[in-house]
Structure formats: structure tokens, C-alpha cells
Amino acid sequence: MLLKKLKTTATLDFYSADTSTELERPFIEHGITAGFPSPADEFFDASLDLNKVLIKNKEATFFGRVKGHSMQEDGIQDGDVVVIDRSLVPQNGSVVLCSVEEGFTLKRIRQEKDGLYLVPAHSAFPSIKITEASQFSIFGVITYVIHKVGRNQGAR
Q1: What span, in angstroms and rounded, lies between the C-alpha atoms of 136 and 132?
Q2: Ranges of each domain in the chain
Q3: Cα gap 90→137, rounded to integer Å
Q4: Residues with Cβ < 8 Å from 143, sequence gap 6 or more?
Q5: Would you place residue 2 in the very low, low, confident or very high pLDDT band (cuts 50, 70, 90)?
Q6: Are 93 and 110 in contact (CB under 8 A)?
Q7: CB 60 within 8 Å of CB 85
Q8: How far is CA 154 from the centre of its chain?
Q9: Which pLDDT tens digit goes with each residue over 74-120?
Q10: 2-20+50-146 CATH
Q11: Measured distance CA(144)–CA(74) in Å, rounded
Q12: Which residue has the higher pLDDT, 44 or 124?
């Protein structure tokens, strides 16, 4: 899958995805034991194409590289790649990419009796209350997060 950089902001680098390629790789479909090994773990069951898994609506899907730590308690770390689907309708509790007062941010949306809030997943960051005066729009719903295991094992 080729990525084409579209834009860079203080909080996110935006990429489009070229889904015209296919690259099916061996895939162990029936699970990998995290405890004692099973003799069945030595056999690959199927193949997997990440374009088909990560992208449901290719015209409405793009990628972003996260900058910052406000969502780290939800497992979204600085440097991670997020998959953003613009065709999905955000639900209460969805993690979304949104524009607030001319800046982009990733936050969980929470509807409460007194209004809509953008909620970080880090105690050092405050929630943002959206008011009628706010310049606010939701660009898409985060559907997947891709990050390297073991951050100190080399460059991303």
C-alpha cells in the first residue's frame, strides 16, 4: 500500500492510500497462542490483504500519523498511524479526527446533558466543550491504529 502525504499540521500528518495494489500475506486465522505453543501454530490457514481489512470505503478513507500524547491511555501513541473513515457516522464514545478552531485533533466524543465534549485519554489534557460559538467539524471516525511494538527497537 503506497501512502501519499497530503498535508502536515501540528497534531497530524495526513496521507491518502493507494488501494490499487494487492499484497496477500500468509495469515494464521485461528489465533496465535500467547501461552504454551500449539503444534497447530506452525501452519498458515489463509492469506490476508491489509487493504481489504483496514479499508471498507476506499473513497472515504485516509491515514494520519499522530503527533502528541493526548490519546495515549486509549493506546494511540505519538507516531502511530491511524485509519480514518469519513463515511462513518460518529457515535457517542467514538474516537474522531476533528477540527476545532482551525486546528486538528484526535479525541473521543462524549455527548452529555449540557453539550458535546471532546475527551482526551490522558489526565494532563483537559476536555474541550463544544459550544454554538465553536468552529468545529468532524472529519472522520478512527477505525484502526497501527503502531510498532517495542518503541525502542529502531526507527518507525
Answers
A1: 9
A2: 2-20+50-146
A3: 11
A4: 54, 56, 61, 83, 84, 85, 88
A5: low
A6: yes
A7: yes
A8: 22
A9: 999 999 999 999 999 999 999 999 988 878 899 999 999 999 999 99
A10: 2.10.109.10
A11: 12
A12: 124
Single-letter amino acid code for the residue at 52: K
Q: Which residues are registered as beta bridge partners of 146?
A: 81
Q: For residue 104, how many other CB atoms are within 10 A of its CB?
A: 17
C-alpha span between 14 and 95 (Å, rounded): 17
| The total number of residues written for the chain in this structure | 156
* Three cell numbers written together for 150: 517495542
Residue type, 32: I
Residues carrying an active site annotation: 70, 107
